[in-house]
Design brief:
alpha+beta, five-stranded mixed β-barrel, 16 helices, disordered N terminus, Aminoacyl-tRNA synthetase class II (D/K/N) domain-containing protein, ATP-binding, ATP binding, aa-tRNA-synth_II/BPL/LPL
Length: 563
């Protein structure tokens, strides 16, 4: 119970605040088993952001009730991000001016009493509301300069404000669905005995793909460079003094060596100036690409990872079933709306498994995630479906009950070309040996089979060298899974035959030296078979939301300007 007042009158009982905060999370009120009705009469502190507001004054039934001092109530719809639902909050104008609390985006922390909703309005039916007794904190907005003041802004316009758009209701639902999907996949892997491992984002391998990669170059502040150079000179001087005291002969030899080093350093500095340019004439004088990359990575250039499959395989060859999660980078100006320069991916690798085994694992994982979302986050899915009036909720629910359609690459090409020819679609037919682009695959999913599709056994030229070559020597043991949003999973069986693996490396013109460490996995205690898959988490969330552009599901998308 709350403390009694000085008068001895008992105040309303307090609700239980959430752990680590002095406020009550709105989800615990709005998604209570009885809709929050059991909390009526209790005192609560809530905080959030105003998404909608209006003024209300008590109706006047007779001239005798006309009183200029009758207060105006600000009726606020407040959301704190924990749920797609909003809590109605009534703020008396004697507590705070309506002009301060009503603008969209206003942040408010308020204490009050929960009661049955007395007013209805807006898109959401109110069952419970909070009557404010004290405004504890108020974060006002600049009315004339608030980019999110308009309601129902198109997704395209929201992309211009990535730092603010999560406060809008659609983007809030997207972030919660992303969280729900991540919770589901973590639970799936843990329940099925997978170990989570951490793998590098920076590495020296090309990783078997042909698209561009981001090279890591060390850049330092010019003042920092000068200071570091001075410190190095002082260190050399101290070292020379010690050498003089110990052995003059050694000192002479060292002086000669240092002379060579200084000459080499001078040449490196001159080369660095050629690469970077004269800092006095550089438009970015404060930051320069100092030639110190070799100090951090002396052996060879390093890059941001496009995937962690090869490193993950090294862990699976010791730990069995493993998975990892992190950002992946691809320096390619994609025209597809499914991809970004930076994408977050989940990768799994399983020892002693064939492609069919890992395909089943990926299949079960996707069904598990979809069922988790349907059971725990369906309100967010419904919320995103309302503006378009789509039946996406039903499609998502059907994924949990209907099997996916599985067909080979050859069969997929045949089906697509037959349909395109017979129906005279204005799209070119596909040639064997070319990748099946997302547009064609999505056509199979949404129009032909009306369910997710698995395409397997691709031509070897469209997959990396480490994917196992099939007996026909033309295709490899790989598979892709497509949802309505596009490709969400890429899977494969690794090539375990050392001679075939080396031949594939030479066939593709890849540097064998670069992958000697990977070849060691085959040379020393390799498993008979091991397989893995990559789940594009951002692409999956795109499908769960029913959107068609990855920029609308990534908080801060990194996309080329060409997009």
């Amino acid at each position: 119970m709350c403390p009694t007042e000085a008068t001895g009158v008992m105040t309303p009982p307090c609700t239980h605040n959430s752990k680590f905060t002095h406020r009550m999370i709105l989800k615990t009120i709005l998604e209570h088993s009885d809709g929050g009705m059991g909390l009526i009469g209790q005192k609560a502190v809530i905080g959030g952001w105003v998404t909608f507001s209006r003024e209300w004054r008590k109706p006047i039934s007779s001239p005798d009730e006309l009183d200029p001092h009758v207060p105006i109530f600000s009726v606020l719809q407040v959301n704190d991000g924990s749920s797609p639902k909003r809590l109605q909050v009534l703020v008396d104008s004697r507590l705070e001016s309506p002009g301060k609390v009503m603008p969209t985006g206003t942040c408010i922390l308020v204490e009050g009493i929960l009661q049955k909703a007395s007013l209805q309005g807006g898109r959401q039916v109110q069952e419970i509301e909070l009557v404010a007794t004290e405004v504890l904190n108020l974060g006002t907005v600049e009315k004339n300069d608030n980019p999110l003041a308009k309601r129902c802004m198109p997704l395209q316009l929201l992309r211009d404000y990535p730092h603010l758009r999560t406060r809008t209701e659609p983007m809030g639902s997207v972030r919660r669905l992303h969280d729900s999907a991540f919770r589901a996949l973590t639970a799936f892997f843990q329940d099925n005995g997978f170990l989570h491992v951490q793998l590098p984002v920076i590495h020296s391998s090309h990783n078997g793909f042909t698209y561009g990669k981001f090279q890591v170059i060390v850049a330092e502040n010019k003042d920092t460079n000068n200071k570091r150079d001075d410190e190095e000179k002082e260190d050399v001087g101290v070292s020379n003094c010690k050498c003089n005291e110990e052995n003059n002969d050694n000192n002479n030899n060292k002086d000669m060596k240092e002379g060579d080093d200084e000459h080499n350093s001078s040449q490196a500095e001159d080369k660095g100036k050629e690469l970077v340019g004269d800092s006095d004439n550089n438009a970015q004088d404060d930051i320069i690409n100092h030639v110190v990359t070799k100090d951090f990575f002396p052996d060879e250039p390093v890059y941001l990872t496009a995937h962690a499959r090869l490193h993950l395989e090294s862990q699976a060859c010791a730990l069995g079933n493993v998975y990892t999660y992190g950002p992946r980078f691809q320096a390619h100006k994609w025209t597809a709306l499914m991809t970004s320069v930076e994408m977050w991916m989940v990768e799994a690798q399983m020892a002693f498994t064939r492609m069919e085994d890992v395909m089943d694992c990926a299949y079960d994982l996707l069904k598990f995630i979809c069922k988790w979302v349907v059971d725990k986050s369906i309100e967010d899915v419904k919320h995103l479906s309302k503006p378009t009036g789509t039946t996406f909720v039903g499609w998502l629910q059907s994924i949990t009950t209907r099997p996916f359609k599985k067909l080979s690459y050859d069969k997929a090409i045949l089906v697509l070309n037959t349909i395109l020819t017979e129906n005279e679609y204005p799209y070119p037919t596909l040639k064997w040996g070319h990748p099946i682009l997302d547009g064609y695959a999505k056509f199979l999913v949404s129009t032909v089979y009306k369910r997710p599709v698995i395409i397997y056994d691709h031509p070897k030229q469209v997959k990396p060298f480490y994917v196992r070559l099939n007996d026909d020597a033309k295709t490899v043991a790989s598979f892709d899974i497509y949802f309505e949003g596009g490709n969400v999973v890429n899977g494969y069986q690794s090539e375990e035959r050392l001679d075939v693996l080396i031949a594939r490396i030479e066939e593709l013109g890849v540097s064998k030296k670069e992958y000697e460490w990977y070849l060691d996995l085959c040379r020393h205690g390799n498993t008979s078979n091991n397989s893995g898959f990559t789940l594009m988490l951002d692409a999956l969330v795109l499908s769960l939301c029913g959107f068609n552009d990855v920029r609308d599901v990534v908080p801060f998308p990194q996309c080329p300007k060409a997009n």
